[in-house]
Structures are given as structure tokens and as C-alpha cells.
Amino acid sequence: VKLTEICRCSAPGQRLKTAECRVSEALSRFEIGDLWEKVAGGLLKDLAPEKARFDIDESDIAKPNGRAFEKLCTIHDGSDPEKAVVKGFPITGVVALLDSGQPFPVMMDLYSYAEEGFLSVSEKTMDAMRMTKRLLPSEKVYIADRWYDSGPLMNEAITLGSNYVFRGKSTRKYSIPSKKKRMSGLEVAKHYKGKYVSRFTDSDGRETE
């Protein structure tokens, strides 16, 4: 739909140039994210379980031949087995897992490392976590893959009054204030009662835990 067609319908008696300026100014102030938060928040309150689960992950869009895209940056192409460095954009995605088993897309934030105000991927992730708090103030569980098992992200989940399940690395060291030292994830697990086992099938069809 052309802007001129919108203006002719919304202000039939007004000069077209005047109507275009008025509508253009209004659209420049319009934030689609604010509207989506209201829509998604209303839907989640009806569809999400009492303790909602939010899956957070990073992705990307590769644009190896792109030239005219604004703030085009370089990324590691996630679809390439060699993780080739190409032109493109990173994406932070959040999906809510409903009781019905259906995923509910909450946000898909496409951004650029070159954009003004960009701080870090961690900050983008924390912004996403804060948004889920606005959408659904009740307690929730954040689920994420490797790389997310960092102190700032764990602390953010706790600050938001929620739990988290982040996949860790056996070699990752964590600062444990009560022990006054840094320990690996496996060493930390030995200090807690019970055994937690997750079984999965790898890309070769082998079952492991």
C-alpha cells in the first residue's frame, strides 16, 4: 500500500502533501515492538503455563553478497559446517513453550554489531529476558544452550525472580562464593544431593548422557 493511498483515504479533503507529512511524522514515532509486547503479553497470559518456559538462542542471517544493507556486519555463518565469516546480521530469538507442546514465538531481534549503542550479545540477551518479564511477570524458567552459562546471565535470571537451565561446559570454571574458589561444573555438581542426568541422541544416532 502506498503512502499516498493511505493519505487520500484518511484525509480526503486535505492537500496530499500536507497529509503525507502528517502521516509520515506519525509513522516515524510508531514502535512496532511496543504493539507486539501488548499483543504477545495478552496471548501469553491465556496460553502459557503457571511457570512458563522460555527458550533463548542466537541465530543469524547470512548475506554474503549483500552490499546495500544498512549497518551490515560480519558474522560466523551458523549454517556453514566451517562457521565461515561472512557478511550478515545476528539474531536473538525467544520462544515460549506452551503446555500444549506448541512453541510460541515471543521475539526475533535482528540487529548489527555495527549499530549505534550496541554493547554486547549478552546485553541483547538480558534485554530479551527483561522483555519476557514485562510480558509475563510470574515466575518462569529460562532454557538455553552453551555459551549462556555465564555469571551475568545467570544473575539476571535470578534478579528477574526466575529459574534457569543453561547447558554448561565441563571445562567452564565458576566462582563459588561459599567455597571461596573457582570450580568446574562437574565439581560444583558433587556438592549437591541427587543426580541429574540428561540423555540425548547425537548426530550419528548414538545415545549418550
Q: What does this entry look like structurally?
A:
- The chain is an alpha+beta fold.
- It has helices at 3-10, 16-28, 32-47, 121-135, 151-159, 185-189; strands at residues 52-62, 73-76, 85-97, 103-110, 140-144, 163-166, 173-176, 181-184, 200-201, 207-208.
- Strands 1, 2, 3, 4, 5 and 6 form a six-stranded mixed β-sheet that branches. A two-stranded antiparallel ribbon has the order 7-8.
- A hairpin with an 8-residue loop joins β2 and β3 (85-97).
- It is globular.
User: Using only CA atoms, what is the Rg?
Assistant: 22 Å
Overall 3D shape: globular
Uncertain spans, ≥5 residues at pLDDT below 50? none
Percent of residues in beta strands: 25-35%
DSSP E strands, number: 10
Helical content band: 25-40%
What is the helix tally?
A: 6
| Strand/helix succession | HHHEEEEHEHEEEHEE
Structural class: alpha+beta
Please give the largest β-sheet: 6 strands, mixed
Q: Nutshell version of this structure?
A:
The chain has 209 residues and is α+β, with helices and mostly antiparallel strands.
Topology:
Blueprint: H1 3-10, H2 16-28, H3 32-47, E1 52-62, E2 73-76, E3 85-97, E4 103-110, H4 121-135, E5 140-144, H5 151-159, E6 163-166, E7 173-176, E8 181-184, H6 185-189, E9 200-201, E10 207-208
Helix pairs in contact: 1-2, 4-5
What attributes characterize this protein structure?
6 helices, 209 residues, six-stranded mixed sheet, alpha+beta, single chain, 10 strands, two-stranded antiparallel sheet
